[in-house]
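From the shared-data thread, chain only:
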Amino acid sequence: MRFSFIAPIVKKALCLAPLIALANSAHGVTIYTEVGDAGELPATAQTTTDTTQAFDEIKGTLAPASGDSVDMYKIYINGGGDFSAETIGGVGFDSELFLFDSTGKGVYANDDTTGFLTPSLLPAGNALTPTVAGYYYLAISQCCHQPFSSGGAIFEDVDGGSGHLLLSGPTGAGGAMPVTSFGGSFDQAPGGGAYTIFLTGATLAPSIPEPSILMLMLAGTASLALLRRRNAGK
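Structure, as tokens:
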């Protein structure tokens, strides 16, 4: 059978596809680790890639002194109000968290859970928590670097304009339009460092195989179909 080599190749390709993902699992916790520097806008956001499965943490690093003050990730939220994201126990700097929908429009944001210079929390079960399943963009920044659209600030400073957001929806002047930039000063110098965002209700975005592997898989599938057709004709 001159097609006998195809099945192992297809099997290998199918096994390799999930490995393209950069998530990993250890002790039952599925972690996505930033690769290089995640971008700060939807067009440059880093997609959390893997087979479709729940995941628990995103790990990365911010370095505002080097121009890296925001990281954005494309994730899949399962819907039903179960999503949450928090940096409690995961940062050593004053973080902010922002969630945007698939079009880049703000959903909700938080700087300090309580007080000042504390971690951030986007809670589950809140009126602002997404209930519709789909792709979203999750961003972490060094306070007080916040998102703007062409109409202005997306999230309003709800405590007197100091830049320290309580839990907020997109109530700013630019809240009805997609994010186009981040801006604002920093409350720590140099700030930044390693971070972990703890998640619930999120799924790793399904990965798309590299073109070479995808072509290999398609070629193998076509060859197997041809082989079956020829065997059926005997």
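DSSP finds two helices and 17 strands in the chain.
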